[in-house]
Fold each of these.
Amino acid sequence: QVQLVESGGGLVQPGGSLRLSCAASGSITSFAAMGWYRQAPGDQRNMVATITRRGTTTYADSVKGRFTISRDNAKNTVDLQMTSLKPEDTAVYYCQAVRGVTSWGQGIQVTVSS
């Protein structure tokens, strides 16, 4: 099973930007899709953005126009560029990879607060 490690989280002020990165332990070209999900306290885990092997992207309505997902097959990474961050974006963000089975990273905290 692939290992996924997230990085780039932290504390940012409203309106600021962060870039999350997910590094996979092996080649990501075999994954049907990869994505980012988030879970706020007391809430379920929700999809934020996904990207397929062919590069097709999907975004939650709440982040459209503000977040961008991208993948680098040479580096085996999937990044999430987040701009115009809002307090409601505060959550633990998880990287996901799908290849028959679904693999998850350990999660990383993003806090948007002044």
Note: The chain has a mean pLDDT of 96.
Amino acid sequence: QVQLAESGGGLVQPGGSLRLSCAASVDAAATYAMGWFRQAPGKERVFVAAITWRDRWSNPTIYYADFAKGRFTASRDNGKSTAHLQMNSLNPEDAAVYYCAAASSLARLRGGQVDYWGQGTQVTISS
């Protein structure tokens, strides 16, 4: 059983930045791909980014949704089961509840076949 604890959501002005964090309860680095989804009101939950690494000494493999490329950066703390999502140049379309997710493979995660979900953190974009 893996528990995911998220932090870092909040209110930001258009063009601003936020950094989300997701801490896994176990050493998930070599077992799970970790990533982020988001769900805006009245819309489906969609994939945002995923990061996976073979071991804590390897460079991670990272994938982004098209809307996240160039603005969002996924990373992880070396030696820890904590993933981060740095979000820059935020616009009103980015407002949503952001969920951390873990799956047994990157392909499953990107396909929405998630094994574990975080509780979600609200990101609000407003001037």
Note: The chain is about 5% helix and 45% strand.
Amino acid sequence: QVQLVESGGGLVQPGGSLRLSCSASGSFFAINGVAWYRRSPGKQREQVASIPFGGTPTYVDSVKGRFSIARDNAEDAVYLYMTNLKPEDTAVYYCNADFVLTSYDDAGLLSYTVSNRWGQGTQVTVSS
């Protein structure tokens, strides 16, 4: 069973910093794109940052210059470094990834499929 587990959330004062971690486990061939999303009370879920395999990160405008996404392919992990946090950053943060899975069909041929997975979320609260 492929899964993602986030950690690192908590309570921080405005202007503070946090690092969120997301670790992948299970049996998979590779991980393509990974991303961090967040959902604030009364708001729709939004993608905060994303990074494709070997590609360039992208960020939502509201966090540019403050957040940084990084992935460690050797450790199957992705991180979100958050600095200069603001009260409006308060949300549940979710890790998302596209896993490449392998299987053999009835003819014994190897096939690849992509399976999208979500983590359980980690709460970030920015408040004085």
Note: The mean pLDDT is 95.
Amino acid sequence: QVQLVESGGGLVQPGGSLRLSCVVSGITFRITDMGWYRQAPGKQREWVATITSGGSINYANSVKGRFTISRDNAKNTMYLQMNSLKPEDTAVYYCKGRVYWGQGTQVTVSS
């Protein structure tokens, strides 16, 4: 059974930071390209960042320079460090590996 479980979301003030985690089981994590996506209320789900099994990284322009994606293959875990958060970053954040999605974690940026 494949499971992707996100955690680390919450309420943070503009300019603050959060670190999201995605723990993966049921697939061979170390050879799986992984990604973060988000969906704001009333909007379509959008891609945020990708990290390949080989460590190549790409970011959406909207988060470049503020977010950092990483992975720890020994822990079957992917991370998203989010700094300088803005209200427009408010969304449910999802991790994805192959065709599998996590359940999402809510991030709310508000004063």
Note: The mean pLDDT is 97.
